[in-house]
From TrEMBL:
The chain crosses the membrane at residues 110-131, 137-159, 171-191, 203-223. Keywords: Membrane, Transmembrane, Transmembrane helix. This is Membrane protein. InterPro entries: DUF1129, MFS_trans_sf. Pfam families: DUF1129.
Length: 234
């Protein structure tokens, strides 16, 4: 009983007018998506007859937290779950599932994963084409190595521009970055293959190229788990 009286006394000392003014200033600094989240949440709390005083206290904490995480491209939904989840938690004390924002691994890990992905994919396609009779030979050793190296950088760039929640224009940047990166990768591979002397680029038989592709994909899945690589394309 003493604790409850003390809590009530502390609430009675809160300057709600100042809190509401502060909340309004914090709200104006949110992204449109985060503002929409708070508006919908406010509507849900109104429907549940939550008092203005309690909402002021709730929103004070939420707005500060959302604003601080906004710089890290985290949205209100990333932090608190859906509007329904958060409303149920605030009204009934039932916490919904909150999705944690996906963290991206170190740059070298993303490069390694990308190199194995594109390098392995290219090797598999070449090996399969060899067996289906669409090509007479496999890849050159230097060409194969360059494909892995450049493929890793290509995926790194694409991953960097992958859409982030709450950031406007992210999808358009992603499409542009993906298109330019893949075009550059294909051009570099074509030019390097044409310019490298045959003596420095001995051909690997198609059957071996296929095996290399399979090994690359197996290594990708193994290392992704072993090194806990996060934020990759696949």
């Amino acid at each position: 009983m003493a604790r409850k009286n003390k809590a009530n006394e502390q609430e009675s000392q809160i300057d709600y007018a100042a809190k509401e003014k502060e909340n309004a200033e914090l709200f104006d600094q949110l992204t449109n998506k985060n503002q929409e989240y708070m508006i919908k949440l406010n509507r849900r709390l109104d429907e549940a007859n939550v008092s203005e005083e309690r909402k002021t206290i709730i929103f004070s904490d939420m707005l500060k937290n959302i604003l601080s995480e906004q710089a890290n491209h985290n949205t209100a939904r990333n932090i608190y779950g859906t509007v329904t989840d958060q409303a149920n938690y605030l009204i009934q004390g039932k916490q919904g599932e909150v999705k944690e924002p996906v963290e991206r691994s170190a740059t070298w890990k993303l490069w390694l994963d990308g190199a194995l992905l594109l390098g392995g994919m290219f090797s598999l396609i070449t090996g399969i084409s060899y067996y289906t009779g669409n090509t007479e030979a496999g890849l050159g050793v230097t060409t194969l190595l360059l494909n892995f190296i450049l493929g890793g950088f290509a995926v790194m760039i694409i991953t960097k521009y992958a859409p982030k929640p709450g950031v406007k224009g992210g999808f358009l940047k992603y499409i542009l970055a993906t298109t330019l990166t893949m075009a550059a990768w294909i051009m570099l591979m074509a030019f390097s293959t044409a310019l490298i002397p045959p003596a420095l680029n001995p051909v690997i038989p198609g059957s071996y190229t296929l095996i290399i592709g399979v090994i690359a994909f197996a290594a990708k899945w193994y290392l992704k788990r072993k090194l806990d690589i996060k934020g990759t394309l696949i």
